[in-house]
Amino acid sequence: MHVRESHVRESQVRENEANRPDAGGSASPRRPTQAERRARTRNALLESAARGLSRYGYGNLVLEQVAREAGYTRGALYHQFKDKQDLTLAVSEWVMATWDEEVGQLVAQEQDPAAALLALARGHAVYCRRDIARVAIALRLEFSGQDHPVGREVEKGYQSLIERCAGLIGAGREAGSIPDGPPARAVALAFVGAVEGTSIALSGQAPHDESLVAGAAAGALGLPTHTDIQGRTA
Amino acid sequence: MHVRESHVRESQVRENEANRPDAGGSASPRRPTQAERRARTRNALLESAARGLSRYGYGNLVLEQVAREAGYTRGALYHQFKDKQDLTLAVSEWVMATWDEEVGQLVAQEQDPAAALLALARGHAVYCRRDIARVAIALRLEFSGQDHPVGREVEKGYQSLIERCAGLIGAGREAGSIPDGPPARAVALAFVGAVEGTSIALSGQAPHDESLVAGAAAGALGLPTHTDIQGRTA
DNA sequence: TCTCGTACATGCATGAATGTATGTTACTCG
DNA sequence: CGAGTAACATACATTCATGCATGTACGAGA
Would the keyword Nucleotide-binding be found if you checked this record's keyword annotation (chains A, B) (predicted)? Predict the structure, then answer.
């Protein structure tokens, strides 16, 4: 009666599709193991949720749509995540980890603090080209001033970023590569705000995003712009 | 039974309070006229809704809380506004009008395009010191890519701001006060993004907000920073 | 091949928020 | 000063997303 099997075929098709290339391989098993299957759907759900959060925010996010876009139903979602909040927390961690791998690395490679901050700006601009760019800022806007666990988590990451930037600014000032000005913490706030604001405004925009974000970031730091030092486009 | 009159007294008190100074006046009537009363509550509801939208966004905005914070109930709200969407649209118009009076004026007074843009940045920073700073960006983030009427309205205002800035950038480049660079429209996006991002990050922050926002804005435009003018280049 | 645990789907109950209908008080005008 | 209407409050119906409980198919080990 209610035993329709279409959904079963669908998921079968999905996994077969993903597995067919392995048919002749030797490293991975022909049929997906349970752990693989679980990880696969978990990843799909996380990605879908990240897109949704980036577009609609937490409150407007409808879990059925998240699951559907990932190719599942809410059942799968509630099997992998405790509830909406847990899912969002997982997305937040996932996004931050991705950011750290992609942008944090760039920053760590630079020696000069000013160069590190500009690398952060450029890296963030590139990072924001994808469709999950707004996750962080959307969640922070939505939960700012609240006492929600998600808000706390996001705010924690944000504060740690601010600290990191403030530290770099202080170091840059001591090294002489960043001019004096307002308190380092206030400058760090401005720097991050400028980077985030421009990155979002320019996301998906041309190839100009990098240099423009870097320019705004440099302005917030009080650095001379590249137009002053003719021909210098790092 | 359900005829409690406490709420009636409350509203009476509220209006008497606001009217007492007029007791000896001659210009305005001693007792508030209907239109005055209506305008008063409408304004209170608008202000409350603006705060709510700025804090929680559209989706998380609870109309009962809006009404309660304004000193009324949802009944008053639904008497003055057709529905939630209508209220939000009214808030949007109200905020934009306020912005234009406060910031737009500053911009119009400046002769040089570059000076006008920097005046916009500083003016916006000051404008964002109040608690309704985030209304515009919150709504735009929440409805970006949607087909919601509120989103269209907000996006319209945003695009018109972008156009205005792009025009100023073009003029500034012809006048020589703004260096060449990426397409004017892209720079305008970066400029507005930088201004909004820094203004929000620094809202309520110290007296440094103005100069820091101006710095980021100048950076996005490719202008030399004031530290260069002071001769403090590294 | 049989059985058990896991991955997932489906159906239902709950709660919260919206919108509307109805009732009550305050102002206005004859 | 009395009728009529506007400004509100209150009570109710509807909608809808969440969370959970139940049901079914798949994978792993004996």
Answer: no
Q: pLDDT of A103-152, one tens digit each?
A: 999 999 999 999 999 999 999 999 999 988 899 999 999 998 888 999 99
Structure tokens at A58: 């937490």
Give me the CATH code for the B82-234 domain, please. 1.10.357.10
CA separation for the pair A189, B225 (Å, rounded):
18
Q: Give me the helix-helix angle, B84-99 and B63-70, nearest 10°.
A: 60
Question: Domain coordinates of chain A in residue numbers?
Answer: 1-81, 84-234
User: What architecture does CATH give domain A84-234?
Assistant: Orthogonal Bundle (1.10)
Q: What is the pLDDT of residues A174-208, one digit of tens each?
A: 999 999 999 999 999 999 999 999 999 998 787 99
Distance from the Cα of residue A140 to its chain's centroid = 13
Is the dihedral angle over the CA atoms B154, B156, B157, B162 positive or is it negative?
positive
Report the share of chain A in percent with pLDDT over 70: 82
The separation, in Å, between residue B74 CA and nucleotide C26 C1' comes to 19
Name the nearest CA neighbour of A79 among A106, A55, A45, A56: A45
Residues A103 and A95: beta-carbon distance below 8 Å: no
Asked whether residue B9, judged by its CB, lies under 7 Å from any atom of the DNA or RNA strand D, the reply is: no
Q: Span B212-225, mean pLDDT?
A: 94
Find which nucleotide's C1' atom is closest to A8's CA: D25
